[in-house]
Amino acid sequence: MATDPDAMWKPGYVPQAPIEPVDVSALFDDARPDGPPAPAAPPATDVVEDRIVVAVDAPLVDTDGGPQRRRLLIGAAATVALLVAVGVIVNRSDPEPPDVGDIAAVDERRIPATVDARWTTLLPGTGSAISTRLEIIGQDLVVVVVDDGSRNRTSISGVDALTGEIRWRRSFSFAPPEVRILDIVDDRIILEQIGPSRRKLLGLATIDGETAWEVAAAEGAFGIVLDGSRLVTRVLQAPDVPGVSATEFIDPVTGRTIDVVAGRPLTSDLSGTWLVGGRDGVVAVDLSEGWSEPVTISAAGVSPDEQIASIDGRYVVLDALGGLTELVPDPDDPLASRRPLTTSGRGMDELEGIFPTGGPTMVGIGRGVVLGVRLDGDVLTRTWRVQASVRTVGVTPQGVVLALSEAGAGFLDGVDFIVVDAVTGARLAAAGPAPSYDQLPLIVGDGFIITQAVVNGRERIGYDLDGTELWRLPVNGTLRVGNGLVATLNNTPAGFEVAIYGPEELRPGGTVGSDG
After folding, report:
1. What are the DSSP E strand ranges found in 69-187?
2. Hey, which residues does 91 pair with through a beta bridge?
3. DSSP structure string for 407-430
4. pLDDT of residue 154
5. 422 near 399, Cβ under 8 Å?
6. Do the strands 388-396 and 353-358 form a parallel or antiparallel pair, or are they unpaired?
7. CB 472 within 8 A of CB 460
8. Is 413 exposed, middle or buried (0-12, 13-18, 19+ CB in 10 A)?
9. Distance CA 172, CA 162 (A)
């Protein structure tokens, strides 16, 4: 990039050649085993628009390419069992909700207090809902990805969120299903192309949609923006070495590599610090204020089939046999780094996945069961239990909120959902059937939106984090939330219709939406 950060917006600017990907092969050299290959990694997990997608004996699934800003809240630490069980049981034994402390990874989106129709605009294009992407940036810009009507071409538009004016349109030589919006960071729209012939990351300028940078990606790499960070991250898989990976951190403005760390993202403390590691050790990287140098946590490392949850500055490890220990750094004896933990409560000996939910709490996932767990001293105690499967994860100031598919109807698409406070187990609301992933409950920083079937379509219902209903909006199509605004995208015979809903007038000081 040019020295002048504003050079790319000025007349006469000549963009640089695409940035070449960093060579990370050296990171994998020492990790190649001399003997038989390492055991295969557990089933791949992904979070698509705040929801967990699990690939069981299948490739990674991404159904709509929605924003990935919270996609590794649980990261490799969630092997979610989509199994059929019977009945829904909620048991709570924790009388006082714990203090979850400050959470830096809180979703920045806010649900509007009201949903008055503000404007509607029409974008040219063809295709079905599967060929579209939608994201709203704060209360300023709506980004729309559609099929432009020609073979393997994508049109990306920036629409003014307050007026409906189309600010810019750009055409790209890949099909819409091959691209997903990872996030918007520091005036850059971060895209990932995942087509079979070419893979790359792109940073588009929000001001005019121009390509500020692009980075080629190898097969098996995938991009993310980790909770509580302002950096773009790529997880790179070692060629022909199962379970060995590296994590590349990228400047979102320039696209240049900041550093590469051996291992994969393991867990977040929800305050901006992430653990990254693998067989050769675990480090902590504080990303809350940008990049910081990694700090060694353990030289002993973790295997691909182990999972970690960061809880109040402590690190709980779940091994492949369901055992729970604490990772305790010991500089004098790196191999003596595990301390056993005692468990209390039914189901604690059958866990297959864990992830943090704020303060001294975490969620455990078993065979068709989701548990709330609290760590006190050396005891992990079950605080609530539901026969269900985790489908959506959202980070809020009061901790994590979950959408669960009820076990009574099975765990297939089309079942009913409940929204639960992951810290207390409190049931906040129930959602209707969701025949597609786009209709799963949408959890943001200060509330959530569920979908209900109504005559001639669907109805979206907005709630605050206490489970209080705020509004009802009878709309179909894709729905996304910004800062106090709601955007919808519908495919019509005339083109793609984009609409914005929110308060009728801006609040003093330019803020739209609820007080949350």
Report:
1. 91-92, 116-123, 133-137, 141-147, 154-160, 166-172, 179-185
2. 385
3. GGG-SSTT--EEEEETTT--EEEE
4. 85
5. yes
6. unpaired
7. yes
8. middle
9. 26
| Nearest of 184, 278, 269 to residue 232 by alpha carbon | 184
Output the pLDDT for position 252. 95
CATH number of the CATH domain containing 193? 2.130.10
Question: The dihedral of CA 21, 207, 111, 94: what is its sign?
Answer: positive
387 and 86 Cβ atoms separated by less than 8 Å: yes
Pair 234, 248: CB distance under 8 Å: yes
Identify the CA nearest to 142 among candidates 192, 69, 67: 67
Distance from C-alpha of 190 to C-alpha of 254, rounded to nearest angstrom: 11
Low-confidence ranges of the chain (pLDDT < 50): 1-90, 93, 410-414, 507-516
This prediction's pTM: 0.79
Q: Give the DSSP letter of residue 292.
A: -
Planar angle of CA 204, 206, 212, nearest 5 degrees: 30
Paired tokens of 427? 């049931």
Residue 509 lies inside a defined structural domain of this protein: no
| Secondary structure class of 7 (helix, strand, coil) | helix
Both tokens assigned to 398: 């009061």
Query: Within 10 A of 446 (CB to CB), how many other CB atoms are there?
Result: 22
Number of domains in the chain: 1
Strand duo 199-205 + 211-216: pairing: antiparallel
Domain membership flag for residue 19: no
Q: Which residue range forms the structural domain that includes residue 173?
A: 45-502
Structural domain contains residue 353: yes
Angle at 234 between CA 134 and CA 244, to 5 degrees: 135
* Nearest residue to 355 (alpha-carbon basis) of 402, 303, 323: 402
Is there a domain that residue 510 lies in?
no
Q: Which of 32, 22, 11 is nearest to 217 (CA)?
A: 22
Question: What secondary structure letter does DSSP report for 14?
Answer: -
Amino acid (1-letter code) at residue 464:
D
Q: How many residues does the chain have?
A: 516
Contacts of 372 (CB under 8 A, 6+ apart): 92, 94, 357, 361, 363, 364, 382, 383, 384, 385, 422, 423, 424, 425
| Distance, CA of 423 to CA of 428 (rounded, Å) | 12
DSSP 51: B
pLDDT digits (tens, 9 = 90+) for 361-411: 999 999 889 999 999 999 999 999 998 889 889 999 989 999 998 765 544
Sequence-distant (≥ 6) Cβ neighbours of residue 458 within 8 angstroms: 439, 451, 452, 474, 475, 476
